[in-house]
Write a structure and sequence with these properties.
- The chain is of the alpha/beta class.
- It folds into two domains: 293 residues, Thiamin diphosphate (ThDP)-binding fold, Pyr/PP domains (Rossmann fold, 3-Layer(aba) Sandwich); 36 residues.
- It contains eleven helices and seven strands.
- It has a five-stranded parallel β-sheet with strand order 1-2-3-7-6, sandwiched between helices. A two-stranded antiparallel ribbon has the order 4-5.
- Helix 1 packs across helix 3.
- The model has no long low-confidence stretch (mean pLDDT 95).
- The structure holds thiamine diphosphate and magnesium ion (MG).
- Magnesium ion binds next to strand 4.
- Its cofactor is thiamine diphosphate.
């Protein structure tokens, strides 16, 4: 498949249908690699459930599950090379896992402070400020291009982020400077309680690309093979200096926005049920079982092993000292300006006051 320039046409590219049957040409992936990616999809969902449980016990901060979005988050990171940059929001934990960020580092970050990820993973810390990671990705790509490095940068945001200036500015810079970047919009239907229909009157977010002179594609975001395929091609286009690509992945947030949200107050359960039938993990599982690449027993073994892996990483992350309340100042600037030094002191005074109040 070659990436088509799309206008307002609304057909999402698909390789694997809901029943796990091939309806397009398979990307170049070995059976071992497919099984590994399937394992990380399962890991992404189980990791999400674990952090939600820790949050309920008061041992983790607010957390947004990626349940339902495993094919997109795993598929977008899988074609990347170690030197390629990844700049994401909070919904792409599985992408970071594919890139090699250790589970214990990620779990520790949900104790209130995101310590830097290992340098060699080339992942920026997750962004909570909506949309800001998109110009970061374009900047990293432009820097690589200027330096002549064969490095690609990927920025990932949600449907809600497309209404931010940052998203549009990133697209414009990417087009004007032909940055080796891939900008991915995970359209999961909702931005907290704001539905996709209230975000834009455009038929698709992908259709925004051509207005910026950026190659665009719309893909079934619950289809691992399709996401991998379009991503692989976009990354190669970027690496061979053929320019940036905008990819919209059509997916769905099966859970709450975060642990601080109750979607039953604004969302029809029938919509959720309809998307459960398109579950990306079940879809790939059906494919694997039909091809005799996975049995029920294999599947159970994978789940048991992941559970152990997550529990080990949790023990490790919880055994570390709690992050200092002012730790993030260490990463704000090389030398703190007087105003920031003052803010740091204020924060420490406040934290001490709070602690004394509790005694
Ligand atoms: C600049 C900014 N404005 C508002 C918020 C509050 N906020 C947090 S998540 C969110 C919705 C984002 O929706 P979307 O981009 O679709 O991402 P999703 O959560 O669906 O993955 C908002 C408005 C924020 N974090 N940053
Ligand atoms: Mg969204």
């Amino acid at each position: 498949m070659t990436i088509q320039q799309i206008g307002s046409e609304l057909t999402a590219y698909q390789i694997l249908d809901v029943e796990g049957n091939l309806v397009g040409a398979m990307p170049n992936l070995s059976n071992e690699r497919i099984l590994e990616l399937y394992r990380i999809m399962q890991l992404g969902r189980m990791f999400s459930n674990k952090i939600i449980a820790l949050q309920r016990q008061g041992r983790a901060t607010t957390f947004g599950s990626l349940a339902g979005q495993e094919a997109t988050t795993v598929g977008l990171a899988a074609p990347l090379q170690p030197q390629d940059w990844l700049a994401t929001s909070y919904r792409e934990i599985a992408s970071l896992i594919v890139k090699g960020v250790p589970l214990s580092t990620l779990i520790y970050s949900f104790r209130g402070f995101t310590a830097p990820y290992p340098r060699e993973t080339h992942c920026l810390p997750i962004q909570i400020v909506i949309g800001t990671q998109m110009p970061h990705a374009v900047g990293l790509a432009m820097a690589a291009k200027i330096a002549g490095d064969p490095v690609v940068a990927v920025g990932v945001c949600g449907d809600g982020a497309t209404s931010e200036g940052d998203f549009n500015e990133a697209l414009n810079f990417a087009g004007v400077f032909q940055a080796p970047v891939v900008l991915v919009v995970q359209n999961n239907g909702w931005a907290i309680s704001v539905p996709r229909s209230r975000q834009s009157a455009a038929a698709s977010f992908a259709s925004r690309g051509p207005g910026f002179g950026v190659h665009s594609v719309l893909v079934d975001g619950n289809d691992l093979f399709a996401v991998y395929d379009v991503m692989q091609q976009a990354v190669e286009r970027a690496r061979s200096d053929q320019g940036p690509t905008l990819i919209e992945t059509l997916t769905y947030r099966l859970g709450a926005h975060t642990t601080a949200d109750d979607p039953t107050r604004y969302r029809d359960e029938a919509e959720v049920e309809a998307w459960r039938l398109k579950d990306p993990i079940l879809r790939l599982q059906r494919f694997l079982m039909k091809r005799n690449l996975l049995t029920e027993a294999d599947n159970q073994k994978i789940i048991d092993e992941i559970e152990e892996e997550i529990n080990r990483a949790t023990d490790e992350a919880l055994s570390l000292p709690a992050p200092a309340p002012d730790a993030f100042f260490d990463y704000t600037a090389a030398d703190l300006l007087p105003r920031l030094q003052e803010q740091r002191q204020d924060l420490l005074r406040y934290a001490t006051h709070q602690q004394n109040g509790r005694r």
